[in-house]
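Need tokens for this chain, all 305 residues.
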Amino acid sequence: MRAQFVLSEIGVGLRRNLTMTFAVVVSVALSLALFGGSLLMSDQVTTMKGYWYDKVNVSVFLCNKSDAESDPNCAKGAVTEDQKKEILADLDKMSVVEKVTYESQDQAYKHYKEQFGDSPLAASLTPDQLQESYRIKLKDPEKYQVVATAFNGRDGVQSVQDQKGILDNLFKLLNGMNWAARAVMALMLVVALMLIVNTVRVSAFSRRRETGIMRLVGASGFYIQAPFIMEAAVAGLIGGTVACGFLVIARYFLIDHGLALADQLTLVNFIGWDAVLTKLPLILATSLLMPALAAFFALRKYLKV
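Here are the structure tokens for all 305 residues:
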């Protein structure tokens, strides 16, 4: 009988404050969708880092005849065969180096034509204008500075470049976008909590006569509070379910179908469905507990039970 009474009171409360309940559902849904999206963005950045950092190379570019005339680093002339052998031998001795691949001027020219064949510059470029290089795979991409220190300024070396620096700029941008999403999420959570508290207050005020009678007949504080708390929890849970639907639909249409980013951006290693599905229970739990706790503390302050 008590359970039936509590459930009937929940239905009455939700119907009486239908507009405010709808506002709570929408604000909770949006804030938790942003919450889940920020978690997935963090996973995506971590996945991309692990994927790309494992593939980055350090390139030691060697001086050619053109560099000898224009680049101060190559003032002593183009690299010699003896210098190339010494550089390769020193690279092989370094504990941080996993693999060294030599790229000739002809190979560099071929790769350039493959990537930038439509560029106007490509028509006037010749193989002897490009540089030979050693492409170095490091055991730890963070150890780039070890190679740079050893070979920058060395005879025959034009420059040492780290591809990780380019990726770092991309990941900084993605992290910045992620923090911006978290800031909006935090704002939406505050709005949702304020709506929940206000909805509970209005609901409690509209039923002050019933709660007064219940206190007079000796009903416990929890028994009086339970319908209000559960109203907020039900509204929050509906919002959380909608947020989960947003995330599933977004993953489906953005990556797998619709925009099909997985097919269009083959160089990006997108997160899988497992990453999405593991976030859904957390979102549902948050959507249930957050409104219930907000309602509980609101009732302690505004209902003298």
